[in-house]
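S2.1 Query sequence (ABC transporter ATP-binding protein)
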Amino acid sequence: MTEAHVILHTQGLSKQFQGFRAVGSVDLRVVEGTVHALVGPNGAGKTTLFNLLTGFLKPSAGRIVFDGHNVTSAPPERIARLGIARSFQVTTLFPQMSAREHAELALQAGTGLSRQWWRSEKRMRRFTPRALELLDEVGLAALAEQPSGSLPYGRKRSLELALAIALDPKLLLLDEPTAGMGLEDVDRTVALIDRIRAGRTVVMVEHNMSVVGSLADTVTVLQRGDVLAEGPYDEVRSDPRVVEAYLGADVA
Ligand SMILES: Nc1ncnc2c1ncn2[C@@H]1O[C@H](COP(=O)(O)OP(=O)(O)OP(=O)(O)O)[C@@H](O)[C@H]1O
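Output structure tokens follow.
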């Protein structure tokens, strides 16, 4: 049997904020081609860990290796260039711009011409065919010309996914992809992530355990900045330490 390829590896990764330990000493091994979920009660350190992985925060200690590159403390642009993309947040969409224009902009960002985009609408047109393909991939073909501000919430989140996969990242980081959604949108998003995971590795922070159960190959449970448990979903969810951490959080 060949050993699974670890595409993302952290060793002793930690982050302190003025002495407060938000991420303790995390060793994470994400296997290429899998969906790896990060779960844990509020304040467990999930968002901080994401910010460390994408270079938005610098670690206090430890190491991050992605696809053979040491990216510890690397700037976000370098990490993005190496193939890590994070799902955009709804708040970063420009309400007047259409879904297609957002997709064109995301594609254009990969060409290094970012500062000139506004100079020529004609220049953007070369990205139109791929932009429409991307929107089709996330079920937004019929809404391509709508201003993004007028899209229903669930569709805005689909647009974020389209933007995150625009540059065909090797590793996709999804921050609570179903947060705030109704059942129908949750189901559609699960099906969508299941489609776009093909040929990629996904790390997602997700609170909805049925979403985690449907998508994740591996689950890492964080608590107060440390890894509490890790393994396949069925194993992890019946782990007494995990049950206690969640019950404890509920009671609190
Ligand atoms: N910039 C900061 N300065 C000080 N403390 C911070 C900062 N960012 C996060 N923290 C603290 O670090 C801890 C971990 O926060 P983090 O947002 O990573 O948790 P989380 O697991 O993502 O929680 P949630 O599920 O609520 O989003 C929290 O106690 C938080 O208050």
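The radius of gyration is 19 Å. The mean pLDDT is 90.
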